[in-house]
Design brief:
alpha+beta; Beta-lactamase; six-stranded mixed sheet; five-stranded antiparallel sheet; 19 strands
Length: 488
C-alpha cells in the first residue's frame, strides 16, 4: 500500500516538474528573453548610470556635455554626478542631490526629467511590471534646445551688466519665437552644481520661471494688442494727455510727471505714456482686456519643462475694480515671470501664435531610440494682422523712442522697456526698482526674442538707460551669429 502511494506521489511530482520546465522554456520564453535582452542593454541591476545632459554648438552641431557621471570615491555611490562646464546654464540644469538617503535630481532639468534620467521611464517600469521592483536600468540622455555659444555670450553680458550697475541680480532669456525653443536662459548670480552644498537654497532658484515681478511699461504692448485686436483703436488713434488721471482718491501720473497733450497710440508706446495705456484699456473694456490677458496665458504656467515654474498673478483683475485695471494697463499691480513676458512677445513676433516654451529637443533612450520634441501652438491670442501692426509700432519705439541704443544697423528690431518698483510680499512697494527690456527681430523674419532684466540697479533710474546697450549687443551678436543679411 505504501509503495503504491509513493509511486503515485513521484508520478505527480515528475508531471508537475515536467510541466514547469515546459512552461519556463516555451510559454515564458519571450518573458525571459526580454529580461535578458534588457540586462544586455542596460548592464546589471546594480550599475545603472544616470542619463547625461547635452547642449549643441549652433555653428557646427558639436555636442557639449553639461552633466555626466564619473567614478565616485564615496563608499555609498559607484558614480558621482559631474558638470564639466561648471556654472554654465546652472539654473537650467540644476543638480543631483539627496532626498533622505537617495540620490535625486533637484531643480531645473535634473528634477523635471528625474524619471527619464534615472531610468524610471523605460526599463525600470518594465522591471516593476514583471516583479523586479528594486531594479533599475540606465537612464535616458537629453539634448537641450540651448545653443552653447548663445548661452555663453548671454551669461557674459549679463554678468557685465549686473556689475556695471551694482545690481542684486539679473536675467536673460532668448527664445526662438517660431518654435518656442529656448536658445539661452541665464540667471545671475550663477552657482557651480559641482559644489552645490556651498550655496544657499535661494541661489538655486531660476528667476526666469520661479519668481514673478511687476513688468511696468513693457506690458503696454499687451494692452495695445488687446485694443488693436478688438478694432477699437488704430496706431493713429489720438487722445489728449493731461498728465494725470484721477480714480477716487488715487491719482495716476506719467512716469516722468509730464503731460504730452494730443498723442497717437504709436507715440504712447514711443514715449511710454501711462495715461495712454489707460486710454487703450478703457477703449477695450474690462472684460475684453482681461480676456486678452488670459489669451496670452498670463496668470498660468507656460508648461515649460523645468521644475518649479510658478503662475504669475493677475487675480486682482477678477475683483472688477477700476483702479486694478488702470494700473494693470501699464504693468503694475499684476505680476509675470520673465518667461511669460518673453513668450508673449514671441507670440507678437510669430504672427499671433503663442508657442509652448521648451528646453529639451531630444530624448535618447538607453536602447538608442530617440524621441524628438515637436513645437506646439498653445494659443492664438491675436490675429496676424494685429501682430503685424503692433510690430510696426514697436519698431518705432526702438527707432524713434527712448532706446535708440538698442538699434541694430541694417535691421528692424521691435521692443519696449519697463521700469517698475519692486513689490513687497506683504503688500506695497519697496524703494527698489526692476528694469526690463523685451524685443524681437529681425522683424521681417524673426529669429529671436530677447528679454533682459535687472534687479535693484544703482545709480540709474530707467531701463532705457540701463539696458539698451546690452540688449543691442545681444541682438547684434545674434544677427551676426545667424549670418542674417541686412535689409537693403
Amino acid at each position: 500500500m505504501r509503495i503504491n502511494v509513493l509511486i503515485v506521489f513521484f508520478v505527480c511530482l515528475f508531471s508537475f516538474t515536467a510541466y514547469k520546465l515546459f512552461d519556463l522554456s516555451v510559454n515564458q520564453y519571450s518573458f525571459f528573453s526580454e529580461v535578458a535582452a534588457n540586462q544586455k542593454n542596460y548592464g546589471t541591476l546594480d550599475d545603472a548610470l544616470r542619463g547625461e545632459i547635452f547642449i549643441k554648438d549652433g555653428l557646427n552641431g558639436q555636442i557639449t556635455t553639461l552633466a555626466t557621471n564619473k567614478p565616485s570615491s564615496a563608499s555609498f555611490d559607484l558614480y558621482s554626478r559631474f558638470y564639466p562646464q561648471g556654472n554654465l546654464a546652472s539654473s537650467v540644469v540644476g543638480f543631483l542631490g539627496f532626498q533622505d538617503k537617495n540620490r535625486i535630481g533637484q531643480y531645473g532639468i535634473e528634477e523635471y526629467y528625474e524619471p527619464w534620467l534615472s531610468g524610471q521611464v523605460g526599463f525600470k517600469s518594465f522591471l516593476n511590471k514583471v516583479g523586479f521592483s528594486n531594479g533599475s536600468g540606465h537612464g535616458s540622455s537629453l539634448i537641450l534646445t540651448i545653443d552653447k555659444n548663445i548661452q555663453f555670450f548671454a551669461e557674459a553680458k549679463l554678468k557685465e551688466l549686473v556689475d556695471k550697475w551694482g545690481a542684486s541680480g539679473g536675467s536673460v532669456v532668448i527664445q526662438d519665437p517660431k518654435t518656442g525653443s529656448i536658445l539661452a536662459m541665464a540667471d545671475y548670480p550663477y552657482f557651480n552644481p559641482n559644489q552645490y552644498s556651498k550655496y544657499s537654497l535661494g541661489e538655486f532658484i531660476n528667476q526666469n520661471i520661479q519668481v514673478s515681478f511687476e513688468p511696468g511699461s513693457s506690458f503696454k504692448p499687451i494692452t495695445m494688442a488687446a485694443a488693436l485686436d478688438t478694432g477699437l483703436v488704430k496706431p493713429e488713434t489720438s487722445y489728449f494727455d493731461s498728465g494725470e488721471i484721477k480714480i477716487g482718491s488715487s491719482t495716476i501720473r506719467n512716469y516722468d510727471l509730464k503731460s504730452y497733450g494730443w498723442q497717437t497710440m504709436t507715440s504712447v508706446l514711443e514715449k511710454s505714456i501711462n495715461t495712454g495705456a489707460v486710454f487703450a484699456m478703457r477703449q477695450t473694456g474690462h472684460d475684453k482686456f482681461l480676456e486678452y490677458l488670459e489669451r496670452f496665458q498670463f496668470g498660468k504656467k507656460t508648461d515649460i519643462d523645468l521644475a518649479g515654474e510658478i503662475n504669475g498673478n493677475i487675480k486682482n483683475l477678477y475683483t472688477g475694480r477700476e483702479i486694478n485695471f488702470v494700473t494693470a494697463s501699464f504693468g503694475q499691480g499684476i505680476s509675470v515671470t520673465p518667461l511669460q513676458l518673453v513668450n508673449a512677445y514671441s507670440a507678437i513676433a510669430n504672427g499671433g501664435k503663442l508657442m509652448r516654451p521648451y528646453m529639451v529637443e531630444k530624448i535618447i533612450k538607453a536602447d538608442g531610440e530617440s524621441i524628438v520634441v515637436k513645437p506646439e501652438v498653445i494659443a492664438e491670442p491675436i490675429t496676424p494682422e494685429t501682430a503685424k501692426t503692433l510690430t510696426s509700432m514697436l519698431i518705432s519705439v526702438i527707432e524713434n523712442g527712448l532706446i535708440k541704443k538698442a538699434i541694430v544697423p541694417g535691421f528692424h528690431i521691435a521692443g519696449k522697456t519697463g521700469t517698475a518698483q519692486e513689490a513687497k510680499t506683504e503688500g506695497g512697494y519697496s524703494e527698489f526698482f526692476i528694469h526690463n527690456l523685451v524685443g524681437f527681430g529681425p522683424t521681417e523674419n524673426p529669429r529671436f526674442t530677447i528679454l533682459v532684466k535687472l534687479d535693484r540697479p544703482k545709480g540709474v533710474e530707467t531701463a532705457a538707460v540701463s539696458l539698451a546697450d546690452t540688449f543691442g549687443d545681444i541682438a547684434r551678436f545674434l544677427v551676426n551669429y545667424y549670418q542674417i543679411p541686412p535689409i537693403e
